[in-house]
From TrEMBL, chain A:
This is NADH-quinone oxidoreductase subunit D. It is an enzyme of class 7 (translocase). It is a peripheral membrane protein. Keywords: Cell membrane, Membrane, NAD, Oxidoreductase, Quinone, Translocase, Transport. It is found in: Cell membrane. GO terms for cellular component: plasma membrane. SUPFAM superfamilies: HydB/Nqo4-like. It comes from Sandaracinomonas limnophila.
Automatic annotation (TrEMBL), chain B:
The keyword Ribonucleoprotein does not apply. It catalyses: a quinone + NADH + 5 H(+)(in) = a quinol + NAD(+) + 4 H(+)(out). Its main location: membrane. The chain crosses the membrane at residues 12-31, 78-101, 121-142, 162-180, 192-212, 241-264, 284-306, 318-341, 347-364. This is NADH-quinone oxidoreductase subunit H. Belongs to the complex I subunit 1 family. NDH-1 is composed of 14 different subunits. Subunits NuoA, H, J, K, L, M, N constitute the membrane sector of the complex. HAMAP family: NDH1_NuoH. It is a multi-pass membrane protein.
């Protein structure tokens, strides 16, 4: 029997649908949402089966932003992987770098041996980036619901954070600032003061956004009791970050794992309480992000205090002093995880102890897990709710497709 | 020249001027929309074409004409062209019955500053506006695109539902004036007896319905960008798209003018009599035309203000608001107005009805909304 080889005419690459016209009921139709749709937050394609305005099923199609990160990583030295890590969650590059670098340092037994100033700077920049990432999430979420103005307000203030980080590293989004065993450079002169000036500004913006978006009656109508993700479902789908906390579980790796200098800092873990609807609805997820911005501001203030006081700039401080010349960890399997703005970012790294490159590097991306809940959440919702749910999950396709 | 001929000429000039004003206001509404949005969003807005970007509408028009006029191969060609034409046509026709001013005498000819004074004035507006939805519906259907179809369906059901409440809110006005003619309605409001004082509730219902009829945020579901990309005009490009967008701005201006006519005394302004005594009837009437356009432009500004502030409703919430909110409210309004007219105290009845309603809403809010944001 001759082997069946599908000829190119038998399938078209642009139309790999799960559903076809034959297996639909007569009142249903397939709507292809994306990859160029304005509210899929990047290049996500959703195959939506809808009965008029009601969503019957959603099938996410991935891979439009696939860049072979994991395969690339298998042929690169550990320090040269950092720029690629930036491009995972490109809205929160510092957090991605922080997680990855912690992992490599764990393999090199550098954990806890670095100067405290380095750790504080890392936490400072990571929290700044967390605010920037949440600002994009909250702003685009408002835009998904139809409010355009808060988006631009938040982008305006995100710009200040990006300028600061550009001053620090030379790049606006993809920083390559945190190195294995140290930092690219110390903070520029006057950086701490500028950050201290920024904090009240951001506080005002958050207050404005609260009144303009969160407390708006139409916004509440559109998001309360929509896309209710109950806690057990969230856990079983592997949701983390604001999505899980929105469902009422105070699970924050900064507290649970207490990595870096987070145990020395004071902050609380906000959770969804169902203030306007059910616990775990879209409004709660968004609200958790807003509250987290406030917590991050608190962390930043504490970091600034430490960086200006206890661990202040000294001529002897060299951020690249402990950077290893050659990174060759012993043969091991290692998993490291950290709290990214969007959830738990994990790296599994396997090394053979003989080469400078990882044998395998697997990323556990939070957005991928959040995307997997989407069909469950949106069945039976309205088409407009689907957009609200996608927005509340805060997906970044760079991380989903890798 | 024969008197009828001069009157005909005068009417032709008025129609031309109204046409030009409408188009000019619509063109500059796009500019002001962007400037207002920029102001609210802490941006600069268009500032490249001419000083302060004042030539931006011209540049936009050139851009629209130069773009490829694309008709999708699977679209129904004739209906596809007819959609935007119908939208534009109906949008422009509405302004015919709006009284822009009182009687004026120019070069020995005496005429009204109004396109046509027909005794069904307000019904004409409603008739033409309800035809307007066909432009959107046909455009959405002829595109043969799922997004456009959904947009068209939404437009149809939304406009039909909100027309009901809009019509009911007008009935109370008609009970006052006893005439459908827009001219009579305005004349009944002269010397500060504006309907807004008698009909605060009717005005609120009317303005909400006007938002829905013009497809403006928070009711811009037919072209809802986040779900339907462009809604009914997803497949349109070039000046056909321009016609749709233009028709929207014309509709905004016209509904502003209708609101001014029905609720804000039309061309009446404080000190009208004084000006008429000092300067004569004709200048006073022209200033009145300016006052009406000023009132209309203020409502256009309100449209824009709301658009850049509020999020958008969901389809079913929109229908709920229309059928279970606005229609009962407007029936209540008709009832209160009837009691007012019967008792001979319309202004007290209007205000009492409004206050009662607000109290009722507050009590309802306190009873049902238990949870509050911390």
């Amino acid at each position: 029997m001759s082997q069946h080889i599908p000829s190119i005419s038998n399938f078209s690459l642009s139309d790999p649908n799960k559903y076809s016209v034959e297996n639909l009921r007569s009142e249903e139709m397939i709507i292809s949402l994306g990859p160029q749709h304005p509210s899929t937050h990047g290049v996500l394609r959703l195959e939506v089966v809808s009965d008029g305005e009601v969503v019957v099923d959603v099938v996410p199609h991935l891979g439009f932003l696939h860049r072979c990160f994991e395969k690339h990583a298998e042929s690169l030295p550990f320090n040269q992987i950092i720029p690629y890590v930036d491009r995972l969650d490109y809205l929160a590059s510092m957090n991605c770098e922080h997680a990855y670098v912690m992992g490599v340092e764990k393999m090199l037994n550098l954990e806890g041996k670095l100067p405290k100033r380095i750790e504080y700077i890392r936490v400072l920049v990571a929290e700044l980036n967390r605010i920037a990432s949440h600002f994009v999430a909250i702003g685009t979420y408002g835009m998904d619901i139809g409010a355009y103005t808060p988006f631009l307000w938040l982008m305006r203030d995100r710009e200040h954070i990006q300028r600061l980080l550009e001053w620090l590293s030379g790049a606006r989004m993809l920083y390559n600032y945190i190195w294995v065993g140290g930092l690219f450079y110390d903070l520029p002169e006057g950086f701490e003061q500028k950050v201290a000036e920024l904090v009240p500004l951001i506080k005002t913006t958050i207050k404005e956004v609260k009144t303009l978006v969160e407390e708006n009656a139409i916004f509440i109508k559109r998001t309360a009791n929509i896309g209710v993700l109950d806690r057990d479902l969230a856990i079983s789908y592997g949701c983390t970050g604001p999505v899980l906390r929105g469902s009422g579980l105070a699970f924050d790796l900064r507290k649970v794992d207490a990595y870096s200098v987070y145990p020395e800092l004071e902050f609380i873990v906000p959770t969804g309480k169902g203030l306007v609807g059910t616990v775990g609805d879209c409004w709660d997820r968004n609200h958790v992000r807003v509250l987290e911005c406030e917590e991050s501001l608190g962390i930043i203030e504490q970091c600034i205090d430490k960086l200006l006081g206890e661990h202040k700039r000294t001529p002897e401080f060299k951020p690249q002093e402990m950077v290893p010349k050659k990174i060759r960890p012993a043969a091991m399997d290692m998993y490291v995880r950290a709290e990214n703005p969007k959830g738990e970012l994990g790296f599994f790294i396997r090394t053979d102890g003989r080469s400078d490159i990882p044998q395998r590097l697997k990323v556990r991306a939070c957005s991928f897990h959040h995307l997997s809940v989407l069909p469950t959440l949106s069945r039976g919702a309205y088409l407009a709710d689907l957009v609200a749910i996608v927005g509340s999950l805060d997906l970044v396709m760079g991380e989903v497709d890798r | 020249m024969e008197p009828t001929n001069t009157l005909f000429m005068a009417k032709a000039v008025i129609i031309l001027v109204v046409f030009a004003i409408t188009l000019g206001v619509a063109a500059y509404s796009t500019y002001f929309e962007r400037k207002i949005a920029a102001f609210m969003q802490d941006r600069v807005g268009p500032d490249r074409a001419g000083p302060f970007g004042i030539l931006q509408p011209l540049a936009d028009a050139v851009k629209m004409f130069m773009k490829e006029d694309f008709i999708p191969s699977h679209a129904n060609k004739w209906l596809f062209i007819m959609g935007p034409c119908l939208s534009m046509l109906t949008a422009l026709m509405t302004s015919a019955v709006i009284p822009f001013g009182d009687t004026v005498t120019v070069a020995g000819v005496t005429f009204d500053l109004q396109g046509i004074d027909v005794n069904i004035g307000i019904l004409w507006v409603f008739g033409i506006v309800s035809l307007g939805v066909y432009g959107i519906l046909i455009g959405g259907w002829a595109s043969n695109n799922k997004y456009a179809l959904l947009g068209g369906i939404r437009a149809a059901s939304q406009n039909i539902s909100y027309e009901l409440a809009m019509g009911l809110s007008i009935i109370a006005i008609l009970m006052f004036s006893g005439s459908l003619s827009t001219k009579t309605i305005v004349e009944a409001q002269q010397n500060g007896h504006w309907n807004i004082f008698y009909q605060p509730l009717g005005f609120i219902i009317f303005i909400v319905c006007a938002f829905a009829e013009c497809n403006r945020t928070p009711f811009d579901l037919p072209e809802c960008e986040t779900e339907l990309i462009g809604g009914y005009h997803t497949e349109y490009s070039s000046m056909k798209l321009g016609f749709y967008l233009f028709a929207e701005y014309i509709n905004m201006f016209i509904s502003g003018a209708v609101m001014a006519t029905l609720f804000f005394g039309g061309y009446d302004y404080p000190g009208y009599e004084f000006v008429a005594n000092k300067l004569g009837e004709t200048p006073a009437a022209f200033i009145g035309a300016g006052a009406l356009i000023g009132k209309a432009l203020f409502f256009v500004f309100v449209f824009m203000w709301v658009r850049w502030t509020l999020p958008r409703f969901r389809y079913d919430q929109l229908m709920n608001l229309g059928w279970t909110g606005l229609i009962p409210l407007s029936i209540y309004n008709v009832l209160v107005t009837g009691i007012g007219i019967l008792s001979g105290q319309p202004i007290i009845a209007g205000i009492a009805g409004f206050v009662l309603l607000i109290l009722g809403l507050i009590i309802y809010d306190q009873l049902t909304v238990k949870k509050k944001i911390a």
